[in-house]
Known about the structure:
The chain is α+β, with helices and mostly antiparallel strands. It is built from two helices and eight strands.
Amino acid sequence: xxxxxxxxxxxxxxxxxxxxxxxxxxxxxxxxxxxxxxxxxxxxxxxxxxxxxxxxxxxxxxxxxxxxxxxxxxxxxxxxxxxxxxxxxxxxxxxxxxxxxxxxxxxxxxxxxxxxxxxxxxxxxxxxxxxx
Length: 132
C-alpha cells in the first residue's frame, strides 16, 4: 500500500499516478481521485463526484465477479475502467469505456455496467483435460 501525497489516503499501486515535472526534483505520487480533480480544474470540466466504485456481477455459470471502477481524466475525455478483484490471482476481467466531455458521466457508467454484463454472459474459453 502507498499513500497519496495530496490527501494521505492509502491505495494499492493501481490506484496511484506519479507525476513528474522538470522543474520539480521529487515526482509527485497522488491517487486517481486527486489526479482527476487536478485535471478537471485545468481543463475546466465538471467531474462526477459520486458513483458506485464497486460492482458484483454474476457470469453465465452463476459465479460472482467483483469489480472496482475507476475513472481517469484525459485531455480528450474520461476513461472508465472496471477491473476484477480476485483473491487468488491478479489476473481477471477488465472492461473499459470512453466518455467525451460533452457526454454525461451517468451514461458512461451505465455503458460500463452493460459492457460488464455482456462480457460475462458467454463463456469464451472451454476448460478441458488432455491425456497423452
